[in-house]
Amino acid sequence: MRLLRNLRQGPLRALCVFLALIGPVPALSQQLGLPDAAILTISSDRLFAGSAFGRRVIDEIESEGAELAAENERIVADLSREEKELTEQRAEMTPEEFRELADAFDRKVQSHREGQRAKLEALGARGDEARGVFLRLARPILVDLLRESGAGVILERSSVFLSSDATDITDIAIARIDAEIGDGKDLE
């Protein structure tokens, strides 16, 4: 009924409604900067790393990684000092006393190692989680690009044996994603 009303309001309006219903034509996709191809490609790594969202996450993880490395260096320096002191005290102790202190020191070293490994794994998991959030947020934008281009599929560029650079929409997708979600700080 609504379409009929639109038809009565003028042929130009009816044409616009019709074009909106059938989707874009190849000429329109080219006007939008999209390739006229049935298959598009995208580099998901470059999509993430090149987006404002990905750059923010990568910068945060690199910063936290650097802090973790500095903390690790401090712990290693402290443990080295403690080991040296323990070695110097060895001559003044019985073998049993030394063994007890050496075992306690070994447990301390192992505990620090496990703690640092857990922090590193948590940092890696955070990066994986952020990438998942990014892909969830980017999906509707990629679906729009697919629809607007008239293509049937978007393939991961690294999985394609051979393709033309003209089918790669990574840069277009990055621009759209940046415009839609920015760095995503408030969306996580």
From TrEMBL:
Domain of life: Bacteria
Gene3D superfamilies in the record: Skp domain (3.30.910.20)
Xref: Pfam families: OmpH
Protein's recorded name: OmpH family outer membrane protein
Organism from which the protein derives: Ruegeria sediminis
